[in-house]
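Notes from hallway chat w/ T.B., transcribed later so I don't forget. T.B. wanted the structure written out for a chain they're using in a teaching module, and asked if we could keep both sequence and structure tokens in one place. Agreed to drop them here.
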Amino acid sequence: MRLGTRALKRPLPCDAKMYHMKKASIRDLRYNFKKVERLLKAGEDIEVTKRNKVIARISPARDEQPKLPDFLGRMRKIFGDKILETSTAELLSKDRDRF
């Protein structure tokens, strides 16, 4: 069976859906920033290209702030309710005067 040229030009069906990172050139950033901004607000990561080479990646900002450790809880766990006679600042000042 011989395939005609028409059969070769038809796209093949595909079951898998691929999600690729969106691309924007420097020119797109300069002149069409509203479109890029809409993509970022939608949660898309964007590759910035210059002369068809990726030079940067932009990802949307996350609203979550990193949690700081509970320093006071750690101090209570180590020292309990014991009150130290000298503070850390006093110890440092004494140590610095020594040199």
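Follow-up for T.B.: The chain is about 40% helix and 15% strand. Might be a good example for the class.
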